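seq as requested:
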Amino acid sequence: MNAAHAPQQPTPDPEPVLQEDRLDYTPTAGSVRLARRRTGRRAGEWGWPGLVGNTGLLVSELATNALLHGCLRDRLFRVRLQLTASTLRIEVTDPRGERLPRLRLPEDDECFGRGLLIVAELADRWGVEPRTVGKSVWAECGLGPRSLVTPPGSPDRPATAPGAPAP
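struct tokens:
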């Protein structure tokens, strides 16, 4: 069958959002700390205290990347959290859509360049979505029973995200 004439697959309905939190931050280092604390607090309030540390670290890495590589003077960055029945999604949006993040393996003596490796290790999935202005970089943590007990890198949870360099 010709791909142009293949039947359309129905798009699955997205899961309903049970909780959502969204806040804009000024592009300063203090905002990263505030975003980390707020994210951890929300994860606990929403019933996932076991994810407080990981979600705080994920938003810290994504917000730091936005601050260093995606922010413009006098333009805010946004942190949005969404909780569904199966996922806690962290999304950081900045105004620089032309500067897309990419995984890389830094040299041992480099001080920077490990943020997305940390994100790929802690999150079950992550990616980038272009926006009309800017981009959103997101990470998702699954909320099944394994999300709290299966360490990254185990056979049930690969250590790398799609497109990530092999360890």
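The longest helix spans residues 52-70.
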